[in-house]
Amino acid sequence: MLQSSRGKQTDLSRDKHRRSGTLLRKEASLNRRKAVITSMCHMDVVAWATRTLIVRKLKGLEDVIDVTVVSPRTSPDGWAFGDVDPFPGADADPLYGAQHIKDIYFRADPNFRGRFTVPVLWDKKTETIVNNESSEIIRIFNTAFNGILSKDKGSLDLYPTDLRAQIDELNEWVYETVNNGVYRAGFAASQQAYEAAVYPLFESLDRLEKILQSKDYLVGDRLTEADVRLFVTIIRFDVAYHGIFKCNIRDIRNGYPAIHLWLRKLYWNIPAFKETCKFDHIKVGYYAHDFINPAKIVPVGPLPNILPL
Ligand SMILES: N[C@@H](CCC(=O)N[C@@H](CS)C(=O)NCC(=O)O)C(=O)O
Question: What are the residue boundaries of the GST C-terminal domain, all occurrences included (predicted)?
Answer without folding.
Answer: 160-286
